[in-house]
Amino acid sequence: MSNDIAITSQPGATVGTAAAIFSPEGMDRLVRFATLMADSKATVPQHLAGKPADCLAVTMQAAQWGMNPFAVAQKTHVVNGTLGYEAQLVNAVVSSSNLLSTRLNYRWDGDWSRVNGKSDKSPSLTVTVSAVLKGEAEPRELTISMAQAGVRNSPLWEQDPRQQLAYLCVKRWARLHAPDVLLGVYTPDELQETTPRVERDITPAAATAQGMNSLINSKTDQKEQARNEGRGPDEILKSFTDAASNAESVEKLDLIFNGGTWPDSKKRPGAKDALSGKWLEMATDVYNLRRDELNEVPM
């Protein structure tokens, strides 16, 4: 029984959650494994011990990522009733993703010799994360500074701020350049993709909540005109991702995603009103990740 899960750590052997759910035999194996896992004492954290349903959720997520369920379980915490995943685990998930053709590369700039990781807000202390996606030739980069690091509850911010900022940058890099990586679900044709991805030459995406709303709150004829000029769900998704990353509160994030009445008393739709299908799924994942981050759920 345990071997069925263990083989998911091998390349190409990732178990699809949908396949397991709709296969009586596959789901039965996962349930039996989760029950066994819940009976463990020293090998699972206290918040999972004796809780087969929670263990099943962790097991299914581990299967999607192709990782050992017990190792994944040790990297989880419950904060405000929500199960969160440690930054180290998220970093490992992104680094080992089959969507990447190279390992993640890091570059630190600035004088880190006297940095106070708990309080430093210097914009000159930065880390740049880059990686090449399969089917592409040029690396995609993202740079963030200590000034952009919000919640710093972990003691590691004081002990190793360079590492913590790198973890944060990896999460934001994945949300921006490959939001589906953290979903952990890929089809065989996506994994075997070898043809270069062709990106349209479009105008710069809106990086603020105001810019996001100007896109999704346009008149019907304006939407059609924008679409004809190259604006479509890809641009709206990127605009939402940028706006969500810049949201400073859960309330603002909710307005950007769900829509509602803004501080200027105007009612505007959200990103979920402008997107559908796979774009809405990816936007929802970005929303949930950013909401967890703002709620201080450890990632």
UniProtKB/TrEMBL annotation:
Coiled coil segments of this chain: none
Biased composition (Basic and acidic residues): 220-235
One function term, GO molecular function aspect: DNA binding
GO terms of biological process kind: DNA metabolic process
A Pfam family: RecT
Biased composition (Polar residues): 210-219
Region (Disordered) residue spans: 205-235
Superkingdom field: Bacteria
Protein name: Recombinase RecT
Provenance organism: Salmonella enterica subsp. enterica serovar Napoli
Lineage: Bacteria, Pseudomonadati, Pseudomonadota, Gammaproteobacteria, Enterobacterales
